[in-house]
Structure formats: C-alpha cells, structure tokens
Amino acid sequence: MRQEFECCALWRWKPPNDGGRAVARWQQSALGGSKEASSLAGVNALQLHSFSRDRCATASVATARVKRELGNDCVDIWYCPLDGVEQARHMAWLDDGEVARYHKFASRNAAQQYFGGRVLTRAALSSYTNVPERAWRFSANAHGRPAIAEPVGHRALHFNLSHTTGAAVLAVGSMAGIGIDIEAVDRQVDIEGIGRRVFTAAENAWVASGRDEAALQRFFQLWTLKEAYMKARGRGFSLDPLTFGLSSANGRFELSCAPACEPQPARWQFFPSSRGADIKMALAVGGSDHVRIRRLTYDPISGSVCRTDRALMGQESVGQE
C-alpha cells in the first residue's frame, strides 16, 4: 500500500499503545490537517519513514491506499532510486514487448535503467487511478515519445520519463507539454566538444566562465534544461539544440529562438534542480499559467511514497555572474 507524507515531518517514532489516538494527533500535525490526514482517520498502525539521501526508508507498515489527485495546474515529479527495483517482484508489471527489450540490453546498467523507468512509470500512473500496474499499454510518436494507449479513458494523463545511473525521474501532469531530464554528474565529459554541438555561443560562454567542477555542474544543468525542452516538444534530438537558447532574467529561465522553432517561446517555463551533489534534473512545461509542482520519492522496495518538496527545485541563473 502506498501513502504520501511530508518528509519534513518524518521521524523514526513508535506510537504508544493508546488505541491510535497518538497516531491521529501525529497525522494532523504532520499533514497540517490536510485532506490526506483526514482520509487516514481510524488507521491505528501508521507507515512512517525517515528520509535518507535517496529514498524513504520504511519503518512499520499498515496504511490505507489513497488515490492521488492531480489538478490542471499541477505537475508531479517522481524520483526513484533504482537499486530497490527487483526482477522477482516487478517484472510481472511489464508487458511482453518491454520484457523482450529488457533482455536485449548488453549493458547491465542500461537494462536496469530501462527496467526501473518502466516500473516507476507504471507505479506512478496507477497511483492516480484504479488501474493495476500491469494493465497499462503505451504507444509512441514518430520521435519515440511515449503516451498512454490503454486504458483509453486515461489518455489525458501525460508523462515524461528520464533515467540515469542509479535513478529514474518521471513528470506527470494533465498538460501535454511536459518534459524532464536527469543526469548523473559524477563522470568526466568533453565539455568543449559536446558544447559546440549542443549549446549556443552564449551558453558555452557561461559554462566556460566556471572552472573545473563548476564548469561540469553548469554543463549538466544546461544539458538537462535543453533536453527537457526537446522532450516536452515531443521531438527529442530531432529538434536541433542549436536552434534555441536559454538565458535568465530575474532568476527565471527564458527561451529564445526563431519563430520556425517555437512561435510562442514565452509560454515555456523551466525548473532546474539538483539531487545532492551528483544529480542534475530539469523540468520544462509548455504553459504560460502558474504551475504547481509536487515532488515525490517512490520506494520500490516497500511501494511507499513520500513528499520531498523541501527545496529540491531551485532556479539558478544562466548568464553572466
């Protein structure tokens, strides 16, 4: 069973034997009297977590499953550590085509990323619906962007997936124009060589203005921002990354490009982030209205979910310092 809690209130705590009254008080305090707290009234054994660097570590388990609501202005960002994804437990969720593709990977790391991404996608989508994880079927556009094929009644639920060594991340929303990317930064890359192929002159200058580790961090932050946009467009690298650029104004990222690339660049919003020192992420949303972001961590071992809204997403300027 899955349950969502605010991570800032997660402690290792064993409730006293008082018939559940202390648990009810803790729920109201931790969840601020929210709808989620009210839905848990009468649950005597509570699933508590302590938030570690990568996951919600589970203590005792006994919760009621609550169907997650997704507003028209909301995008949920799901993070999943891949070391908890297990073939014995989760392979049954995949369809025959996904299982066949998994077994074709020559690299164990690539296979684990693929497998973990599919597990996260199915678990997350099922949390908004009554659809079992195994029942989802997916299609893809001409550029490989996946979408829900079945059940037909849930095609208005949009998602975008990315994975890297050790982790996967998924964006879920009711708007079609969402894209997300994640990259592990604890590796060496040819910053100048790759930068010439994917970054504009202004972007390359910003990366080069950093030194050593700072330059590497800036490289991956720009990379994730640009790839998130290309994925949100449903194009991936069929969209030339040199045809558009990203800059910042008043702490917010803005898109600049020719009308042939994007007729309404001002409608795009960008949200860069870090997950510790070794992970960079970015979300791109195609909509001029206010976007409400919720951040969730999914633990594949227990199936539990916790809120991780505490400053995981933060704007960083792309421009002259």
Account of the protein in words:
The protein is an alpha+beta fold. It has two domains: 7-58, no CATH class; 74-307, 4'-phosphopantetheinyl transferase domain (Ribosomal Protein L22, Chain A, Alpha-Beta Complex). Helix content is 26%, strand content 26%. It contains eight helices and 14 strands. It has helices at residues 21-30, 35-39, 87-90, 96-104, 108-127, 191-198, 201-208, 213-232; strands at residues 49-51, 56-58, 74-81, 137-140, 146-150, 158-164, 167-173, 178-184, 244-249, 252-257, 268-274, 279-286, 292-299, 304-307. Strands 6-7-3-13-14 form a five-stranded mixed β-sheet, covered by helices on one side. A three-stranded antiparallel β-sheet has the order 8-12-11. Strand 4 and strand 5 form a beta hairpin. Mean pLDDT is 80; it is low at 1-64 and 310-321.
Descriptive labels:
5-stranded mixed β-sheet, globular, 8 helices, disordered C terminus, disordered N terminus, 321 residues, alpha+beta, 3-stranded antiparallel β-sheet, 2 domains, Ribosomal Protein L22, Chain A
